[in-house]
Amino acid sequence: MLAMLALIYWQTVVYATHQTDETIDAEITGLAEQYRQRGLAGLVAVINERSNPERGSSMLYLLTDQRQHPLAGNLSRWPDLEVEKDGWMRFRLNADGQRDGPHIAQATSFVLAGGVQLLVGRDLAENVAFRNRIVAALASSGALMVVLGLIGGIVLSRRALARIETINRTSDRIMAGEFGRRVPLKGSGDEFDRLAQNLNAMLDQIERLMAGMRQVTDNIAHDLRSPLGRLRSRIEVALLEPPSTERYRDVLQQTIAEADHLLATFTALLDIAEAEAGSPRGRMAPLDLGAFARDLADLYEPVAEENGLRLTVETGPGPIEVRGDRHMLSRAVANLVENAVKYTPSGGAVAIRVDTDGAMARLAVADNGPGIPAAERERVFDRFYRLEASRTTEGNGLGLSLARAVVRLHGGTIALDDNKPGLKAVVTLPLAPMTEAA
To answer: Which of 104, 369, 389, 415 sits at a 20 to 30 Å CA gap from 8?
Structure first.
């Protein structure tokens, strides 16, 4: 603001000074022309006419002879002039047009033929008054701008503090246990609204995570209670019965099997936690997805033959390179193949297909078993969630959860679709860069 006001003042003063200089130069040019045309007598007549007080002009004239005796003009005598650097001279005037008065005059002089001297100037009182008015106007404008700026600053700061106080109150209520509270939005779309949206999204995510943790905790407690109860009951019954080595051996074998099931559950939970936390990048390496699928099929082919199933593998021409952790991908895809083999009836078929789709590699595991209803295909990825038809079979409901966590770790997606009949699980992973694959 100060810079702007200073620029306005400087431009105004420069313009007024320039106008004064041009006026004096134009007057000198005109008088010189009069002198050439009409001579000294004509010049005296013109100067007397132009310096007549009735005209109310601010112009100053003085024509003198060689001895500086006044011949014409509105100055009584030749003033003591001080020549400035730019060639202009300034002196003071009183009310009668005399030097050393309260007014400042600006003038220039030159010598005409015959030694006659001519001084032409202008009273700068109007310029000074105009400059003072400009200063007063700029000062009042500056004061008004300061007042308005302070008022605007106070209003804006109070509005900002009010929005911040709203966020603080909401945070206090959430910390007090009202987890359903959210920061209200004004609908203006400003920075505070965007901040409130981000905070609400964060709170929603935290609430979902807390709900998931509660659900996982409940599921773990439920799934561990039954096998632990069976363990205790089996051992207690064995102790109550008459001592028998064969009976004790049988109870111990059943106990070991139950303990293996519990260990498998905890191992799956740890693998899911590792995948969701992010596997170390050092374990990521280029991997031929086609060869990976064939190795996995060789592993499950005896199980498929034992169940009366036909297990096939189809891969595209050439290697299909992805970057991943072979061990974790094996755990994920093995769960898909194992589910397909487990739930496909005898005489059915399980097919593993590997191909590409643009910049993504695709691995599909398809079967012609009972499939999964469309409404349940997303829920089966939740931890410990099992369909009613599969509750009597072995498993802990963590296989698909682990598969999704591993695939997401590798930057891919996993989806379940209808195979008509049966189920098709499709895993998509980013192809490895060409330089890395080479």
So the answer is: 104
**Helix/strand/coil percentages in the chain, nearest 5:** 60, 20, 25
Q: Fold for 281-437, please state it.
A: Heat Shock Protein 90 (3.30.565)
Fold agreement (2-130, 281-437): no
Which phi and psi angles does 182 have, rounded to 5°?
A: -135, 155
Report pLDDT digits (tens) over 80-109: 766 666 678 887 776 454 444 467 888 888
The tens digit of pLDDT for each residue in 261-279 reads 778 777 777 777 776 666 5
What's the CA gap between 47 and 70, in Å, rounded?
12
Q: Quick one: what percent of the chain has pLDDT higher than 70?
A: 88
d(C-alpha 330, C-alpha 333), whole Å: 5
CB 334 within 8 A of CB 365: no
Say which CATH architecture domain 2-130 belongs to. 2-Layer Sandwich (3.30)
User: Looking at the domain that runs over 191-277, which CATH code has it been given?
Assistant: 1.10.287
Q: In degrees rounded to 5, what are phi and psi of residue 273?
A: -60, -40
Please report, for the chain, the start and end positions of each structural domain, with discontinuous segments joined by +.
2-130, 191-277, 281-437
